[in-house]
Amino acid sequence: MLYASSVLERFWKYTLVESGNKCWEWIGSKDQYGYGRLTDGRKARHKAHRISYAIHNGELVKGLEICHQCDNPGCVNPVHLTQETHQANMKQAGNRNCIHKNSIANLFTKKILSQAQIDEIKRIKFCALNGRGVGRRVVDVANEYGVCTHLISAVKNDRY
């Protein structure tokens, strides 16, 4: 993905670059999980670590996540970032005790979804995060399929 020069300028403005193998801390706005974020001056939001990976390593592969090997969501040091599948990311995070055990239960029980189930879930209309509006809640769909909410969200958002 090519980013506008204004996004790149703001990326560097809010990046505290450290020498050596230290984390480059994002000092701009962060989301509720501690990941750096910035906008393109309109409504498009970008994750700072994804921008950093793209700047230093090229195009992001659709369907893969940018993972922090340092377990610091505010880090944008490209040396600390890798592209992985959602499953590999969750497994690594689980091995490092960086994620709630229920989120990785699917991985350790080898609970996977068939392609037919994935297709079914993608056709579901979900309600808003606050539970308002028309549609089903992620938690209800997760209970129906016997998996965690993170897995349903990954399918819903094309990350599985």
Keywords summarizing the entry:
36% helix, 2 domains, two-stranded antiparallel sheet, 6 strands, 7 helices, alpha+beta, 160 residues
Task: Give a verbal description of the structure.
The model has no long low-confidence stretch (mean pLDDT 81). The strands form three sheets. A two-stranded antiparallel ribbon has the order 1-2. A two-stranded antiparallel sheet has the order 3-4. The chain has seven helices and six strands. The two termini are 20 Å apart. The protein has two domains: 5-84, no CATH class; 105-156, no CATH class. The longest helix is centred in the first third of the chain and has 10 residues, at 48-57. The protein has 160 residues and is of the alpha+beta class.
Give the C-alpha Rg: 17 Å
Strand order of the largest sheet: 1-2
Mean pLDDT: 81
Q: How many separate domains make up the residues?
A: 2
User: Helical percent range?
Assistant: 25-40%
Tally of alpha and pi helices: 7
According to DSSP, the number of beta strands is 6
**Strand-pairing-aware structural class:** alpha+beta
Parts with pLDDT < 50 across at least 5 consecutive residues: none
Indicate the proportion of strand residues.
5-15%
Write the layout of secondary structure elements.
Blueprint: H1 5-13, E1 15-16, E2 25-26, E3 37-39, E4 45-47, H2 48-57, E5 65-68, E6 81-84, H3 86-95, H4 105-108, H5 115-123, H6 138-145, H7 149-156
Antiparallel strand pairs: 1-2, 3-4, 5-6
Summarize the structure.
The chain is 36% helix and 11% strand. It is built from 7 helices and 6 strands, in the order H-E-E-E-E-H-E-E-H-H-H-H-H.
